From TrEMBL:
InterPro entries cross-referenced by the UniProt entry: Kinase-like_dom_sf (IPR011009), P4KG1-8 (IPR044571), PI3/4_kinase_cat_dom (IPR000403), Ubiquitin-like_dom (IPR000626), Ubiquitin-like_domsf (IPR029071)
Family of this protein: Belongs to the PI3/PI4-kinase family. Type II PI4K subfamily.
GO molecular function annotations of the record: 1-phosphatidylinositol 4-kinase activity; ATP binding
Enzyme class: transferase
Keywords tagged on the record: ATP-binding, Kinase, Nucleotide-binding, Repeat, Transferase
PROSITE patterns attached to this UniProt entry: PI3_4_KINASE_3 (PS50290), UBIQUITIN_2 (PS50053)
The name this protein goes by in its record: 1-phosphatidylinositol 4-kinase
Record CDD domains: Ubl_ubiquitin_like
Domain of life the protein comes from: Eukaryota
Originating species: Cynara cardunculus var. scolymus
Length: 529
């Protein structure tokens, strides 16, 4: 049964589940265009609600994101009532679904090989992958392959997602010529079993691509891009010219598009348009637009995600120090992939009000280099992760007060057999702290508030490390234990703010934070000994 099938039937209220009827409430889950009533208790934790969704609907807990009134219910230990959810409320369920399908190639007698393929690729691409994968035991040219489904020959342009939508699919591969080079007996007919995972996405739109060169948004004309960034831009532009359209990722809460290499064989970049961010007007996941401008996470603003993505790359200093304006070296300490601001015009982006190729259809967003990976850290236990790889990301997250780090936002790659972790998705770094927000009365505007967050986070990282605190201990200082209990860092900042006299400068404020932090960290170190 597919995700879409299960989403259509309402939840049954199991006998025995509702112990205290006075506390029970009915909420409505919206998922993949359907609305599902669900009976829960106000005292249920978010974790248990997600577990019930998994039990009743089959969506894995780790693939679920629940959103209520524009805020993600991200704290699994918090209760439904902590988030102010009450009877009759509507919760949005966002599912993170893998883009990849497992393709198994079998001969009449046994399994031959297995590989992964993106569900939004076409049959022509599947043939290329088969030719590549089959090299070890037989030589199968792309042009000699015919792929059939239910006796019908499949056109090269047909999307793989179309073939196995909502179900596993078995297609037949017929190789026209006998294999020419083979280490094992040649196979004339191979059966391909395509294992389809759930898919909540709609049908991939095929519409004409009005050519428009992808362009970097240049704010400082003195800034030079590194050769790697130019090459990413050139490949993605060439790909668009060759009608290799952007492909929307089935993962994530916003619109994220894979920009293709001109060969159509690989991705070169990920483009995230500003107007498709979570809670933005053209969000393709059906999340309602923000009513107060605040994003999915506290302290972030809708439409600033792309800027934060670019900021994350710039702030990820190389080991030698801050990157110079000529863009070199391109890799920073934590390995955030090179990211720039860009604009692009393409019909494949989400245009709910229509597409005519006019200037109003141009999208501005972050363009990040695509990193070849073997999935995210969600797909693997942490035991094999090198400690320094974990620490480099911890250091980056503490400095930028990143509000959205989870295993799904760290990709896994390999360099010479060693696991390398790549941090992605930095749309929620440098949040404005609500308490620091109060400081705007002293004349600090948005950008200086973000800068202040960065300064205080960096101060905490430096002082914490010099006092021998572990990354976990430092990270805990920045996290709230419960939804409504301020974190230790929030309390320190509040204390400094309370002791400020009108008219005092930012330098004096930071000096006060520094003193408070020293004494708090000494206490924490003593408690940990
Ligand atoms: N630089 C990259 N290289 C390779 N794949 C990437 C890269 N950036 C993003 N992706 C892929 O695209 C998917 C969607 O991106 P991402 O998670 O950043 O989107 P989002 O809408 O901001 O997500 P979220 O809901 O987690 O905030 C990711 O799951 C990942 O598989």
């Amino acid at each position: 049964m597919s995700a879409v099938d299960v989403a259509l039937s309402p939840f049954h209220i199991e006998s025995g589940y509702i112990h205290n009827r006075s506390e029970s409430i009915v909420i409505y889950l919206t998922v993949a265009g359907s609305v599902i009533p669900m009976c829960i208790l106000e005292s249920d934790s978010i974790a248990s609600v997600k577990l019930r969704i998994q039990t009743c609907k089959g969506f894995l807990v780790k693939k679920q994101k629940l959103v209520f009134e524009g805020k993600e219910l991200s704290r699994n230990n918090s209760l439904v009532k902590d988030y102010g959810v009450s009877s009759g409320d509507v919760l949005h369920l966002i599912l993170r679904v893998s883009n990849f399908l497992v393709v198994t190639v079998e001969s009449a007698f046994r399994k031959e090989f297995e590989f992964q393929v993106d569900r939004f690729r076409n049959v022509g691409y599947l043939k290329q992958k088969i030719a590549e994968q089959a090299k070890g035991f037989a030589f199968i040219n792309v042009e000699d392959q015919e792929i059939l489904c239910n006796g019908e020959k499949l056109d090269d342009q047909r999307l793989i997602d179309d073939i196995c939508k909502n179900r596993d699919a078995i297609v037949h591969l017929v190789v026209q010529k006998p294999a020419q080079i083979c280490s094992k007996p040649a196979k004339r007919d191979l059966e391909i079993y395509v294992d389809s995972h759930v898919n909540e996405e709609g049908i991939h739109k095929k519409s004409p691509n009005v050519g428009f060169p992808l362009q970097p948004v240049i704010i400082n004309p003195n800034l030079k891009f590194s050769p790697a960034i130019w090459s990413m831009l050139a490949s993605a532009t060439e790909g668009l010219k060759k009608w290799k359209n952007p492909i929307r990722s089935s993962e994530g809460t916003g619109g994220a598009y894979f920009m293709q290499h001109p060969s159509g064989n690989k991705y070169v970049a990920v483009f995230k348009p500003i107007d498709e961010e979570p809670m933005a007007v053209n969000n393709p996941r059906g999340l309602p637009p923000s009513t107060d401008g605040e994003g999915l996470k506290r302290g972030t603003k809708v439409g600033e995600g792309a800027l934060r993505e670019v900021a994350a790359y710039i702030l990820d200093h190389p080991r030698t120090g801050p990157r110079s304006i000529d863009g070199e070296p391109e890799t920073g300490f934590a390995g955030v992939p090179p990211t720039i601001m860009a604009k692009c015009l393409n019909s494949e982006f989400n245009h709910p009000h229509g597409y005519d190729g006019g200037p109003e259809n141009i999208k501005v967003g972050s363009l990040q280099m695509f990193v070849k990976n073997y999935g995210s850290c969600e797909d693997m236990g942490p035991r094999d992760f090198p400690v320094e790889e974990v620490h480099k990301i911890t250091v980056f997250d503490i400095r930028t007060a990143n509000a959205d780090r989870h295993a799904g936002n760290i990709l896994m790659s390999r360099e010479g057999g060693r696991i390398v972790l790549i941090p992605i998705d930095h749309g929620y770094c440098l949040p404005e702290n609500k308490d620091i927000d109060l400081l705007s009365s002293f004349g600090w505007d948005l950008s200086s508030e973000c800068a202040l967050t960065l300064r205080i986070s960096t101060m905490l990282l430096k002082k914490g490390a010099s006092k021998g605190l572990s990354p976990f201990a430092i990270g805990s200082i920045m996290c709230r234990e419960t939804l409504n209990k301020e974190s230790v860092i929030e309390r320190m900042v509040q204390k400094a703010y309370d002791s400020l006299l009108p008219g005092m400068s930012e330098a004096v404020f930071l000096e006060t934070v520094s003193k408070i932090m020293d004494s708090e960290l000494d206490n924490i170190s003593l408690r940990l000994v």
